[in-house]
Structures are given as structure tokens and as C-alpha cells.
Amino acid sequence: MWKHILRNKEFFRADVMWRLGDATKVPSCSQPWFPGWINQRVISREDRSPRVAELFDFEANQWNADKLSQLFQQELIPQIQTMVHKPVRNSHTEDCLIWGRSKSRRYTVKEGYRLMMEGQGGQLQPWQCLLWEEISNWKGILPKIKIFLWRLISRALMLAPNMHRRMPRWSPTCQRCNLENEYETHCFFFCPCSRAVWFCSNFGLRTHDLSLNIVQAIKQCVQGRTKEEVVFFSMMMWEIWKGRNATVINHKKFDPVEINMKYSAAGWQIILDGSWDTSNKAGCAYLIFQRGKIWKIGYNYHTLQSPFHAEAVALKEALMIIQEGRDSGGGEEIEGYTDCQELVKAVMERDISNLSSWQAIEEVQQIIQIVDENQPAIWIKKVDRNAVQQAHKLANHARRNTVHYIGIPRAVNEIEGEIEGSLNETYFQRVPEAPP
């Protein structure tokens, strides 16, 4: 037990503060001595840190407002002036350290160990409570998601650093990207996998502008948003958490596109990719989803002049397949996901003047015509390469084996033996093959 406590001493030190006697021992600017200090950074305007007793007028029995304003941020001064325990000259009670997590203000091994094993468990601090009150009043959000958000802002989710505190052998590093420790803001906003989710979504979130503090980051995300946008934000946070857990626990690959398709307003979604080699052999593949469920897949062999040409043909073929099947799908919006930024720019900006492959001009013009004629709209979005890996594998298969297929997913295994046709939600798995 003591090994665990000593290893996590910073966890306990965060809740230690001074209780004032005569205040002659307590440095005013380097150690916590009033309630707001524990979770609000105090910034001194002077290099010298006087003792707390020097800030108190014992004759008038009040704090010296001028001295306080020279040392502390203005919003902290009222918290100091309203303290219950003030310094007392010649006090028989010495300045002493107390522990803020206990009602008795005394630290015990039993209480410390219990809180450590509960991660960051404990009462919410005042600024956390304000956000929680706001969240609890959000309408249209399931209770389980509100509880999840409460655990998030109270830092009680079992993220990797919390697991590391319990079990030192557990790495604190994010298992999705292996780049940084998996703190709250990293998990939900800064991890490349989570960034891809927000990038694909219609929420319009610039993650690089967010605070490193999870409470402040959430406030930034929902400030000025409509009720519908707040609900959407909550659902996306929940799905990121579920996707993260599926990766850590079940070793399932994190798929940003799959998460977005669950809450997309579009009735149709396309994941597409092209495969090409220098002999002009090309494969074009697409996975088509109708209201979030797999509808059809297609992969075709072609002789094309460039990778961009293959990407454009894949998009054109997918759009034409959807047009043919509109009787069963109505006139919903269509979202296409590709890793080709050039194709997105050409279609969405209706600009074919600077294409890298002039041979693809005809296909791009046909795509633009379909987009212009479609009501409601068609949206083509740029995503990370990992998000289109299923389509990429099918395109490789078509190119290498000069094969064609369009149909329902469960028929894939019967048509082409090299591709495993089992469908796990929206995932296709490919039998490993030799590199080209």
C-alpha cells in the first residue's frame, strides 16, 4: 500500500493546503493557503513572496487590499477577503498543513488509498460544478451520456494515466496514436484519431484552438451553439469514448468515418478509393451506406492514366450506383469520403483548371454535373487515409486480379475467395496478400 501511495504522491499533494494560525510561516505566493488556490493558479506580480502575515492588518482585523492587488489576480482577492479562518496575532494555534479531501481536514492512509484507487474520484470543484449544472440542463441528451460527461469533467474516466496510477505497468500513452499521454483533452480532441472525427463532422470544430483543460475545452466547444449542436457534440464525445474503448479493450481499429456516419444527416454515405500502378493498371472501389447501414460495395478494374484518375472514376461509379437505387432510398443528401484533397477541391469548388491529370477531366465534369443536378446536396469530404482503408484494399484487389464486382456485401466471399466477406458492423477484413 505504501509503495502505491509514495508512487502517487503528486496525487495527494494537490489537495494539501495551509490552515492559518499567526500566518508567519506561510509563503503567500508559492503554497496554497486559501480555498481557491487548490484549483486556480495564483500569479504573483512580484518576485518576492512575502509571508501571509504581512498581507493582513491585525489592528483593523482585515486584509490589506492594496498589498493583495499587488500580488494576486483581481478575481482571487474576494476569495481571500471572505476567508473564515483569518490570521490571529500571537495565536496559540500554529500554522499547519491540512488535507482538502477529508471533512476532518486530516489525512489518513485509509482515506488516501481509497481515493487513489478511485482515480480522480472526489467532489467536483466550484468551476467544475458550474459546467455540470449547465450539462445537467441540456435537453435531449440520454442520462447515460450526462453521467459520462460528469465523469469526464470530474476526471474519473479510466484513461491511460489513471490506469497507470493504479497499475504502473500500464502505459500512460494513448494506445490509438502512441504519441502522447492519454489525458482528457488528448483523448477527445488532440489525438489524431479524434481530430479526424471532428474534421469529418459537420460540427465545425477547430481542435488546435482548444484549451488543454477539459472543462475549458468543453465550454469552448458548446459556447454559442444551438440546442441541436450541443446534442450532436455530446453524442460525438460519447462515440469517441466508445470507439476508444473498442480499440483499447477489443483491439478494434478506430474508424472516424464510421462514427460520423452514425449521426450524419445524409441518407447516403460513400467510402471510396483508387489504386494505380505505373503500368496504368487501376482499381476503383467504393462502399455505399444507406442511413448508416452497408448497402452495396463495388470494385472494378480499369486502365487509367493516374492515381487521381482512379479516384475520380471510383466516385463517379458510386454516385451512378446511388442514382440507380434512388427508388429505395429517397432523395436524401449524399456524403462522399475520400483521401484525395485534389478531388474534393475540384468537385466542391467546381474548378477543373488545375487538375494533375488532364485525362480525368471528363470524369470530374460528369461528377460535377451529378452534384449540380442532385437535390438535396452532395458533399465530398477529405478524410485521413486510414479512414478509407477498406475501400483501398478492395481497389488493390481489383487492380491486382483484374476483377469486377458490384453487389451486396455478403456475396463477396462467394464471388472472390481472396476477400473475407464477413461484415463486422461497417468493417471489411482482407486476407493478407503479398505486396505489389
From TrEMBL:
InterPro entries: RNase_H-like_dom_plant (IPR044730), RNaseH-like_sf (IPR012337), RNaseH_domain (IPR002156), RNaseH_sf (IPR036397), RVT-Znf (IPR026960). PANTHER family: POLYNUCLEOTIDYL TRANSFERASE, RIBONUCLEASE H-LIKE SUPERFAMILY PROTEIN-RELATED, RNASE H TYPE-1 DOMAIN-CONTAINING PROTEIN. Residues 107-198 form the Reverse transcriptase zinc-binding domain. It comes from Rhynchospora pubera. This is Ribonuclease H-like superfamily protein. Gene3D superfamilies: Ribonuclease H-like superfamily/Ribonuclease H. It comes from the Eukaryota. Residues 273-398 form the RNase H type-1 domain. Coiled coil: none annotated. GO terms for molecular function: nucleic acid binding; RNA-DNA hybrid ribonuclease activity.
